[in-house]
Write a structure and sequence with these properties.
- This protein is α/β, with parallel strands linked by helices.
- It has a single domain, classed as Vaccinia Virus protein VP39 (Rossmann fold, 3-Layer(aba) Sandwich), CATH 3.40.50.150.
- The chain is about 35% helix and about 20% strand.
- It has 6 helices and 7 strands; from the N terminus they run ααβαβαββαβαββ.
- Strands 3-2-1-4-5-7-6 form a 7-stranded mixed β-sheet, sandwiched between helices.
- Helix 5 (about 125-135) links the parallel strand 4 and strand 5.
- Helix 5 (about 125-135) crosses helix 6.
- The longest helix is centred in the first third of the chain and has 14 residues, at about 30-40.
- The radius of gyration is 15 Å and the shape is globular.
- About 40% of the residues are buried.
- The chain binds S-adenosylmethionine.
- S-adenosylmethionine binds near residues 80 and 100.
- S-adenosylmethionine binds next to loops.
């Protein structure tokens, strides 16, 4: 039994202390397929400034850095962020911060926001509130991409499908592309 809530910074920090890469982001076929699908869905555009909350050890961050002039990646686990810093050491256009998603000052500066496997760590009402804040501040024409596992886990507050349904219900987002792969789904929207 874990001593912490499954959404707390302490819970994730304990996971990274026990294993540097608890979800095998570096090597699992599933994760590498998911990262490919994300980057493929963004391909063809370059972005001035991307936001990646919950960047973990920075594997997706590295990929985003190939198509973005600037990447601001954050995670509230100091151990994960240390690994991300090592991985992105030479990428001077990647900025990392050890903060919670809920501490982000403003979403307005970003023309790309990537929500990858983070939405289900919030309760339904809180996720609705957070995404409404994100969308309210996004500039017209900017891009939001969400990608989540569609399986079930006792670590999750809500399902990956509900994470996406909440975003799909926001009339200020225009759906541009959606894909369902074995085990995960992703959607890309443009802010109207
Ligand atoms: C399942 S991992 C996903 C990592 C990465 N986004 C990806 O798709 O490979 C979830 C990550 O989100 C971080 N996280 C969860 N809730 C967070 C929050 N409220 N603020 C910042 N980071 C958070 C965790 O520390 C963990 O590194």
């Amino acid at each position: 039994m874990n001593a912490y809530s499954h959404s707390s910074a302490d819970f994730f920090e304990a996971k990274y202390k026990a294993s540097t890469d608890p979800w095998n982001f570096e090597s699992s076929d599933y994760e590498l397929r998911r990262y490919d699908a994300i980057l493929h869905m963004l391909d063809g555009s370059t972005y001035r400034s991307a936001l990646e909350p919950g960047c973990s050890i920075g594997v997706l961050t590295e990929g985003l850095a190939t198509i973005c002039e600037n990447v601001f990646a954050l995670d509230f686990s100091p151990t994960a962020l240390k690994e991300a810093a090592k991985r992105c050491e030479k990428l001077t256009h990647v900025q990392l911060a050890c903060i919670s998603l809920e501490e982000i000052d403003s979403y307005a500066p970003f023309d790309l926001i990537v929500l990858s496997e983070i939405g289900y760590y919030f309760a339904e009402d809180r996720w609705r509130q957070i995404t409404q804040e994100i969308v309210a501040e996004m500039k017209s024409g900017s891009t939001l991409l969400a990608a989540h596992w569609t399986g079930t886990s006792s670590d999750h507050e809500i399902s990956g499908d509900l994470v996406h349904e909440i975003l799909l219900a926001d009339p200020r987002l225009s759906l541009q592309q959606r894909e369902r792969h074995a085990g995960f789904r992703l959607e890309r929207w443009e802010r109207i």
